[in-house]
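WARN no homologs supplied; continuing
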Amino acid sequence: MSCNPSIGGIAKGQIVREIDALGGMSAIITDASTLQFRMLNRSKGPAMWSPRAQCDRNSYSQNWRWILENTPGLYLWQDTVSNFTFSERGEIISLETSLGGRFTAGHYILTAGTFLNGRIFVGDRTAEGGRVAEPSSHLISSQLRDQGIQTSRMKTGTPPRVDVRSVNLSRLILQSGDESPEKFSYLPYLSSAQRHDIRQMNCYIAHTSPKVHEILRSGFDKSPLFSGKITGIGPRYCPSIEDKLRTFSDKDSHQIFLEPEGRNSTEYYLQGFSSSLPFEIQLEALSHVEGFEDVHLLRPAYAIEYDYFDPIQLDHTLRSKVIPNLYLAGQVNGTTGYEEAAAQGIVAGINAVLRNRGQEEFILTRDSSYIGVLIDDLVTKGVDEPYRMFTSRAEYRILLRQDNADERLTPLSHRIGLASDYRMHLLEIKRTSVIALVNACSQARPSVVDVNPVLDAHATSLLTTPKSITSLVTRPQISLSDVLQFVPRGTIDETIHASQLPLSIPDFLPSTPLPETFKSICPESPSIFSNIVTSTEIAIKYSGYIEREAELAKKLKKLEGLKVPEDFDYSRIESLSIESRMKLTRHRPRTIAEASRIPGVSPSDISVLLVYFGR
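OK structure emitted
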């Protein structure tokens, strides 16, 4: 974990669940490393619910390493790429490393993060690196640029780390985990946060003040962000503290979050206080935040500038249009965040394997997943700042919920041999059980005498005549668990029985002796009953919205089937605007639907294309 020791968040949590539904490991590793779990946006509808877990940084790395080292058929080599050899057709023939290694492959995947010509900034001090104490890579960008791949610079930052013993926590706002914490993976095991013998760790909220802002502004003349030393574009949605002061100059205070790095560590992460200011300014400003008067910095905040590649030069499998056997994934494509990077990584990996086998490519659509939205945005619109996923970027977010990623993606992944038979078995049980429970709720009509005390306790109007459980659950004050007691006992018993399955540990973990962190999340009698109840409640409460959005997606999907010839000359259509012709020629959309999402291509231009192609 290179920066924030958390996984998930708004829209990012949905992505992690989608990776899990595809058969990836991110959710499983997170669940085995969790310090605190929170479901964000619970006060809003389920389309907005987003899981987030604070993780133990060391456990996370150790768990990943154990998985990698015990994955059959996977071989590791630790080194730096120093040179590519290209064929006359522009394909990579082989690569060489700084220690003399030479590797050949059918396809290559580059996931270099922030390390390509990475440079670290703290005030007027600079150093090479993609992270503190980890060197940059200098030769990859120039060689790919020489082959025609467009390269530019971006900037990101990381906040300071502090010793929590030097912070007066009693003066901060406590931010606890959920009382009944969930987990990320759909597999039926417990997260470490749900074990009774492991307590969730707390996070804390603090606030800056006008005095803190005054101190920070005194160092603006030494900020590489404002002096021109940093030329790369920074993330608008995760700005540095100095960016916040300039952009929101009318605000007297900003929230900052104190979050643990590990269960056995006093190092804490100060989310919301990323900076490239001199560390003396950082320390002085931070010492004027309430509760941080005697703060001890373990590491100052710093900014990193690095190379990225224009994602418009990729197709929807993340394969380069310039170098046919190269796939690019992660921050090298202009994105920010580990979740977005992991999503690209699994899609690039799947497609490299499928192409190697001569099989059909694997493309996720915008109505199937946030991963589909992410990749479509990258390859059709490009980026003018580090791309971060939000729920607002998805047109069909009531369909793309965090609770149903398995329903959307596991069948697709199982078809290509990635998601296991065990995952499909779980999904079939979940689907069957939800249908049975929905039907039981629509038929059950508890007596007024029995149900009115429940309604009264939840401050909703009482009944005078019996109503179905379905009608009761549609009330915003009532959840299915509140009235589950009135569902026929036979249906509940059958659902509980079906949901309790033997967990085949080798199904999702290597069949070598398990480390303690994984033993802790594997109960003897796992159950998916709570998932079934949650999915049933959402299906009942939001059935109208879900049906409407599904119908809209079905209509718009017709445009996805209207193909555009790859080498089509848009200058032939004079009725298209000049801007549209330029954008279409640059982006080369594969379908009319892709063309409609390109900035600068208007609805009238799409109508012209539809008429031209006889549709």
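The longest strand covers residues 151-158.
OK
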